[in-house]
Amino acid sequence: MYLKVNRDEVIEGLQKSASIIPAKTGAAYLRTIWLKSEEGSLRIMSTDSNLEFCGTYPAEIIEEGLAGVQGRAFYELVRKLPSGELVIKTDPDGSSILVEQGSRKYKLPVNDPTWFQKFSTFPSEGAVFWSGDFLLEIIERIAYCISDEDSMEAIACMNIVPSSDENGKFIEACGLNGHQFARLKFFNDDIHAILPEEGILIQKKYLAELKKWLTADEIEMSLIEKRLFFKTADGKETFSMPLSYYQYPNYKNFLSKLNDDDVSRMKIEKSELSNALDRISIFNTDSNRCASFMFNPGELILFSQGQEVGTATESIEVDFSGEMERIAFPTKNLIEILGHFQSGEINFTLTGSEAPCGLTGSEDNEYLVIVMPMKVQEETYYSEEDV
Amino acid sequence: MTKFIMHLDMDAFFASVEQMDNPELRGKPIAIGTPHKRSVLSTASYEARKFGVRSAMSSVHALKLCPHLILVPGRMARYKEISNQVMAVLGNYSPVVEQASIDEAYLDITGTERLFGPPLELAESVKKDIFEKVGLTASIGIAPVKFLAKIASDLKKPAGISIIEQNQIESFLETLPIEKIPGIGKKALPRFHSFGIRFAADMRRFTPEFFKERFGERGIILHAKAAGIDPTPVAVGGQMKSSSAENTFGDDVCDPQILKTWLLKQSERISADVRRKGLKGRTVTLKVKFPDFRQITRSKTLGKRTSNSDTIYKAGCALLDAEGYMGSIRLIGIGISNFDDRSRQLSLLTSEENIVDDKKLDDLDKAVDKVREKFGTAMLTRGSLLKLSSKVKGQ
């Protein structure tokens, strides 16, 4: 392998490539970035055995070839080099790769080329164009509700599922962690058409990597059984990840509660509530991390108390209807949820003091978050048992 | 009003109970443990301590130091009975009593001067009262903050009383080795030494932020303690923080199935213990000790609190499985903690079915507890534990 390439052309791809390989652990194969020179371009490839990144960048190819280098070291080296041309070539016996830039010369050992395994090819058939910007928004607004626990299987994934109602076809992106649920509805007939009926599940940890790779530019998306692919619109980079196959919890059960007749409703200014909760949270402690909501006609009273820190009470003007008297929410979680709404006005649908509460935005109708309240137990030292 | 916290520590508690109950043991070096080669002593009498015998020492080593040491098997039920009597006495002196362990308690005695006289006088009365009602001696420490009261109770053992007044704190901290501060253990100690910190007062040369950067939030608390500041109140009812059980094997065990059977046995013990106290815990901790005395602990926090033996056992097994094959194991134990859960976020996914299942398990536990209470623990045993029953007697 012998090629010349501009450092600035490849540095971004190298950074994306290095970000998915394991830093220290794992087989040497997985810590490798593969460089392949062919047909007037340099291909940079890496995998952690689940995610696969492949980028193609213009280069002057003097001799075609393949070399696997220790990924982190190679990326760090190129990152620290100034802009300009890099000469990359393998030495005659193929045991190392030489990187040169002017008078700077570096030699890195290469891995056995027989370790190289073919990367998945982007399936062009059925691929659809999508907005990277919008996919980023979906991840941003859903991922924080997805469980961080790997072991919890389906609820450690984002569920993207095709659906339809009397208004037509739509897609739901959902995240769930056992205590809160987020759903963003959107319309895209092309994506609706390629999604399987039961939808797809993408693990949260892969979403985090996808988010790093995505930009606001247009992307192509394609799907085969067990794998999801993305490609930049200029075709230079592909990023793919495995899909998960678990039974996603039936969220329609708790969604349906929001339509009950006896729900209470509250409309409130988002910023006013967020700021009040932020102050209230100062009075939360490890053992009491909730804010109590008490409802009066036209008024919401927020209250919190913590041993040693004291008590906090605030009153906010709201539109309120219903029978609900009191409910408690985890303060920090609620602040985080509010921060994901674009609308300045938030509607709470309260189904019971120990039952799901739905939040929607007045100008944000396609986005719904359900949060479970806190169960606050009074301390009991003695209890009697029925005989 | 000057704040005063009293820490009471019963002297060589288990050994003293045995000597009180059996006059033949009085004045003799005794220790609680068995002569088994792997038995570890839980307490040694003061007569035995003169020979260098200490708690947590192996019986074999203790017998080498003191060949005429009398080893007595422990009687936990009796110790608990005496402990309850001691706590009842303490309740007469302050409404704010926190039982820290079976033989230790904190009392907030602020404002009791008019009833019982100055703190030293009160301590004398408590000590005398315990001796008259229970027949045992205790050591007492008094200080304006909790951790200093505990350190003070250790200064004049046995049967001593020490007081650190507010105006003595500064000079006391100048000579207090930092390892005496709760939260600075063997691991952290070399780091403190590397900063030239050997005594509590040395920490004041640095800012709280210095310790925060190196030890996280804990660093700020340690810095405050080094200045004699400890806002931790005496917590009434904050009695038990964890319940655990462990067994040291006669011969090392490597079969995961046998280890799991022990976990089941231990899960039954600790679940019954927390149920008796009306508690439920969320964090299950597995403890494993290897033949070279290396020890690991692994914890898992459950989705909700439990006092159910099966749930604790399954969490313990999951922790054990997650470690993979570990080879020979000398000791295995399991514990449950994290009882303080007065407020928790409800689950979106708790189905009616799960609630019914939990109730069924709780009812089953209650029924088992009642049978055992009436007819003895051995009356009802799980089939899978039968093969252990003979071995258990020896542990």
Q: Care to count the β-strands of chain A? A: 27
Shape call of chain A: elongated
> Biggest sheet of chain A, in brief?
13 strands, antiparallel
User: Roughly how much helix do the residues of chain B carry, as a percent range?
Assistant: 40-55%
Share in β-strands of chain A: 35-45%
Task: Report what the structure shows.
The complex is a heterodimer of chains A (387) and B (395). By secondary structure, chain A is of the alpha+beta class. Chain A has eight helices and 27 strands. Chain A starts with a strand and ends in an 11-residue tail after the last strand. Chain A has helices spanning 7-20, 71-80, 132-142, 189-194, 204-213, 252-257, 270-280, 331-339; strands at 2-6, 32-38, 41-47, 52-58, 60-63, 65-70, 85-90, 96-101, 104-111, 128-131, 157-165, 168-176, 180-186, 200-203, 218-224, 227-232, 237-242, 264-269, 290-296, 299-306, 310-317, 319-321, 326-330, 345-350, 357-361, 364-371, 374-376. In chain A, a hairpin with a 3-residue loop joins strand 20 and strand 21. The longest helix of chain A is centred in the N-terminal third of the chain and has 14 residues, at 7-20. In chain A, the strands form three sheets. Chain A has a 13-stranded antiparallel β-sheet. In chain A, strands 14-11-12-13-26-25-24-18-22 form a nine-stranded antiparallel β-sheet. Chain B is globular. In chain B, the strands form three sheets. A five-stranded mixed β-sheet of chain B has the order 5-6-1-7-8. A four-stranded antiparallel β-sheet of chain B has the order 9-12-10-11, with helices on one face. With 395 residues, chain B is of the alpha+beta class. In chain B, a hairpin with a 5-residue loop joins strand 10 and strand 11. Chain B has 15 helices and 13 strands. In chain B, helix 4 (76-90) runs antiparallel to helix 6 (119-134) and helix 10 (208-215) packs across helix 11 (217-226). The chains are: A alpha+beta (387), B alpha+beta (395). The A-B interface holds A 155, 176, 178-181, 249, 254, 287-290, 307-308, 328, 330, 333, 354, 356, 370, 372-383, 385 and B 231, 233, 237, 278, 303, 340-349, 366.
